[in-house]
């Protein structure tokens, strides 16, 4: 009961403080987080555009949705326009193919005509313009004619002039006479076929026709030939 007593320690400042402290690495981590957050806030406030409010964000989203809807509409219209363009191009290609056949046929006819004209007998009189062939017939008081005129093969510029027909035959009283018909304007390239009809005096019966090609009415003769009226 009265054994050896233990010494009593007197603490002047009260209860002894705990010796536990935060780790240094944690302090540095927290400090870095705080500095980084502060830096982000500073940059946002100082250099970046102001943050949008809720209303502004709603308006921006609505504007974006409208713009996206307009973009989709324009894209659909572009697709439809592309289809229409493709259809138009296909139609044009088909029409070109359809037109190519008549053009080719017309070219063949021109080539055939040139070959036939080249095979005609030459004009005995020659001249700047040759009267290569002609057909004349009296029909219902008029003289129907088909006359083939040619120039040099390499003639590229058409030659303007007139064709004057003088017809010899019998008048209504049976007297031999001749009449000069109205001149016909012509434009002659390498060749020209002049076709038409001219009125004759009443009762006149043509027998032969003289074809004259002049540079103008009453002007310089370029070619001449006499042919029978069938």
Which key features would you list for this structure?
230 residues, alpha+beta, Immunoglobulin-like, five-stranded antiparallel beta sheet, three-stranded antiparallel beta sheet, 2 helices, 8 strands, 38% helix, rod-shaped
Describe this structure in words.
The longest helix has 65 residues. The chain is an alpha+beta fold and 230 residues long. Strands 3, 4, 5, 7 and 8 form a 5-stranded antiparallel β-sheet that branches. The protein has a 3-stranded antiparallel β-sheet with strand order 1-2-6, with no helix packed on it. The protein has a domain of 99 residues: Sandwich (Immunoglobulin-like), CATH 2.60.40. It contains 2 helices and 8 strands, in the order ααββββββββ. A hairpin with a 5-residue loop joins β3 and β4.
Topology record:
Elements: H1 24-46, H2 54-118, E1 130-139, E2 142-150, E3 159-170, E4 176-180, E5 184-188, E6 191-199, E7 205-214, E8 221-228
Antiparallel strand pairs: 1-2, 2-6, 3-4, 3-5, 3-7, 7-8
In whole angstroms, the N-to-C terminal distance is: 179 Å
Protein structure class: alpha+beta
> In terms of per-residue confidence, which ranges show pLDDT below 50 for 5 or more consecutive residues?
none
Order of helices and strands: HHEEEEEEEE
The proportion of residues forming helix, as a percent range, comes to 25-40%
Mind telling me the C-alpha Rg? 55 Å
| Biggest sheet overview | 5 strands, antiparallel
Q: What's the number of extended β-strand segments?
A: 8
The amount of beta strand, in percent, is: 25-35%
């Amino acid at each position: 009961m009265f054994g050896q007593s233990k010494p009593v320690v007197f603490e002047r400042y009260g209860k002894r403080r705990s010796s536990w402290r935060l780790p240094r690495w944690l302090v540095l981590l927290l400090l870095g987080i705080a500095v980084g957050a502060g830096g982000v806030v500073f940059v946002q406030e100082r250099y970046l555009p102001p943050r949008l409010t809720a209303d502004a964000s709603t308006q921006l989203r609505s504007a974006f949705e409208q713009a996206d809807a307009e973009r989709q509409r324009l894209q659909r219209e572009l697709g439809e326009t592309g289809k229409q363009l493709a259809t138009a191009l296909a139609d044009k290609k088909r029409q070109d193919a359809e037109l190519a056949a008549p053009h080719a046929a017309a070219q063949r006819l021109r080539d055939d005509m040139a070959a036939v004209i080249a095979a005609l007998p030459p004009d005995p009189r020659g001249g700047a313009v040759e009267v290569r062939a002609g057909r004349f017939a009296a029909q219902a008081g008029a003289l129907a004619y088909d006359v083939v005129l040619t120039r040099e093969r390499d003639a590229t510029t058409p030659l303007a002039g007139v064709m004057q027909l003088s017809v010899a035959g019998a008048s209504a009283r049976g007297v031999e006479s001749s009449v000069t018909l109205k001149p016909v304007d012509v434009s002659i390239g390498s060749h020209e076929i002049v076709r038409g009809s001219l009125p004759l005096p009443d009762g006149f019966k043509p027998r032969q026709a003289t074809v004259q090609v002049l540079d103008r009415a009453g002007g310089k003769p370029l070619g001449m030939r006499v042919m029978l009226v069938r």
